[in-house]
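Appendix B. Raw example, untouched.
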Amino acid sequence: MIDGLRARLEQASRAAGAGEREAAEPALCTLATNKSLAVLSRAGFSGEDMAAVAAAAARNAEAVPNRLAGPSGPR
């Protein structure tokens, strides 16, 4: 199941124009964040704590330069 989710995330990135290497790392990070949130939820962490993790992950993703962006934005 996890391998399938990772493959689908990579496929979505490639469909958006990413190369193999450009697709692999963000897919793995997204998968890790998703699974971490599931573990935190089962461990009884609050929704507020999980929202903080998700917000931090989103900020980190935005901090990564978008290599696919051209003059008119992402392809």
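End of appendix B.
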